Amino acid sequence: MICPMCEKGKMTKQIVDTIRYGIFIGHFKAETCSNCNEQIFGSKEAKKIEQRMLELGLFGREKAAIYKIGGNLAIGLKANLVKALGLTKNSKPIIITQAKEKRFIVEFG
Ligand SMILES: [Zn+2]
């Protein structure tokens, strides 16, 4: 099969390191392009990846608890997310505020 993305490379079956949101989630079977490294997962593998992401707490939106600490507010992170991101109480978060959209992104160095 020729790669549908670059239309040059040949797709071959391989076991690939699979990374989502910058986090290694496991090894999964994929058709991989010899030219551009495009990876295509079959529906069975896609379900396995989805399941693994759920286990790691890497999926989508979820409601979070908010706590008042003195004059500040703190957002509670679930244990599976803390584990997946390797966070500790010593992690140094940087908050990028997008006030217009009423959201913020938290990055950990
Ligand atoms: Zn390709």
Which secondary structure elements does this structure contain, and how are they paired or packed?
Elements: E1 11-20, E2 23-33, E3 39-40, H1 43-56, E4 66-69, E5 72-75, H2 79-85, E6 93-98, E7 103-108
Antiparallel strand pairs: 1-2, 2-3, 4-5, 6-7
The protein binds zinc ion.
The site of zinc ion has 8 residues, from loops.
Features:
109 residues, alpha+beta, two-stranded antiparallel ribbon, 2 helices
Structural commentary:
The chain is 19% helix and 39% strand. The longest helix has 14 residues, at 43-56. The protein contains 2 helices and 7 strands, in the order E-E-E-H-E-E-H-E-E. The chain has 2 domains: 11-56, no CATH class; 66-108. It has 109 residues and is of the alpha+beta class. It has a 3-stranded antiparallel sheet with strand order 1-2-3, with helices on one face. Strands 4-5 form a two-stranded antiparallel ribbon. The structure holds zinc ion. Zinc ion is lined by residues 3, 5-6, 9, 33, 35-36, 38.
